[in-house]
Design brief:
CATH architecture: 3-Layer(aba) Sandwich
Distance between the termini: 75 Å
CATH class: Alpha Beta
Number of strands: 7
Helix content: 25-40%
Largest sheet: 5 strands, parallel
Shape: globular
Order of helices and strands: HHEEHEHEHHEHEHEHH
Strand order of the largest sheet: 4-3-5-6-7
């Protein structure tokens, strides 16, 4: 009896450890004892600042600020100045080369950036004629799937960059728009443990970005955006919390933590591209009319908001100035 009790206690301890380290996996496999509820007004957008649970500082960048620190911005501008049109071998070719930007993410990402690409094509006269956006986002491919470092998004990216006249060596910018959950939380399970789940998401994103640097050797800059409001697919406050994973990853690079370098140094190859936030789009004022009937995928008025935010962001972004806009001159304002 005593032996049986000890075995049971050991199993319980091991199970607790596994759940602590792999909160997301445990969340997906265990039934929820009490489905959680979420009041959309209970949280403010991450950009409003303040502390979550009286401990975790919000705001996109360190110290609760939404502005990129001056030194990190200066480094980004220095790196951006080295982005030039490249031929298929990765050599500078100002006349015929390409500046490729690759999009990676899930279905919402695919839809958002499809709309942004339409804006790019409609305003191509304002952009660097050598710039091109390749959308490799695929439905159902959230961060856990990307973390496998193989699968639909990686295959689509390989297909796009191996087309005639294209090469993986021409990819210099990455737009990563991702999330850490499936399309629909039908059992209405509560979010995984915080902050452990978001710390794991941070690690998984770093792994994906490191693989991108190896796959696209001339990748220099990555823009990171988290998903929008997910109240109607039962994934709040999980999706709101995901902003911490993005913030912590970018902040770790700003602080120069191990494994986050964006430039080769002392004989060590950089593991990551230079990172910054794209526009923040989580908005708890969005009602069901912004989504399809599934409560997940955005309709036109939602993608329009995304496009306007990203277009305005890129106009104002000093890092994008030299490689995105024609003659290094962004337009005065975003079109209405």
């Amino acid at each position: 009896m005593r032996k049986t009790l000890l075995i049971a206690m050991a199993v319980a301890v091991i199970t607790a450890i596994i759940c602590q380290k792999e909160a997301t996996m445990c969340q997906q496999t265990r039934p929820a004892s009490q489905p959680y509820t979420f009041d959309p007004a209970s949280l403010k957008p991450f950009t409003d600042g303040g502390k979550y649970l009286d401990k975790y500082v919000t705001g996109l960048y360190p110290d609760g600020k939404n502005e990129i620190p001056a030194e990190h911005l200066k480094a980004g501008q220095r790196i951006a100045a080295t982005i030039k049109p490249l031929d298929a071998d990765g050599k500078v070719d100002e006349a015929n080369g390409k500046i490729l930007a690759l999009v990676m993410g899930h279905s919402n990402c695919q839809m958002y950036f499809m709309a942004l690409n339409q804006q790019i094509k409609a305003n191509s006269g304002q952009l660097n004629p050598r710039f091109e956006l390749l959308n490799a986002a695929v439905g159902g491919q959230q961060m856990p799937q990307l973390r496998e470092l193989k699968g639909a998004v990686w295959d689509k990216a390989a297909q796009l960059t191996s087309a005639p006249g294209y090469s993986a060596k021409q990819v210099q910018i990455l737009f990563l728009h991702t999330t850490y959950h499936g399309a629909k939380n039908r059992p209405i399970r509560p979010p995984g443990a915080f902050p452990e789940t978001m710390q794991q998401m941070q690690k998984d994103m770093a792994t994906v970005l490191e693989h991108c640097v190896k796959t696209y050797p001339n990748l220099k800059i990555a823009y990171l955006t988290c998903d929008g409001f997910r109240h109607f697919s039962n994934f709040e406050p999980h999706v709101w919390q995901e902003a911490f994973a993005f913030k912590w990853l970018i902040e770790s690079q700003i602080k120069g933590e191990a494994g986050t370098a964006f430039e080769d140094k002392d004989g060590k190859a950089r593991p990551l591209p230079w990172l910054q936030w794209g526009p923040y789009i989580w908005d708890n004022t969005w009602d069901k009319s912004y989504f399809r009937d599934d409560g997940v995928h955005p309709i036109a008025k939602a993608t329009d908001i995304f496009v306007k935010k990203y277009w305005s962001f890129l106009i104002a972004d000093p890092v994008a100035k030299t490689w995105l806009w024609k003659d290094g001159k962004p337009p005065a304002a975003a079109p209405k």
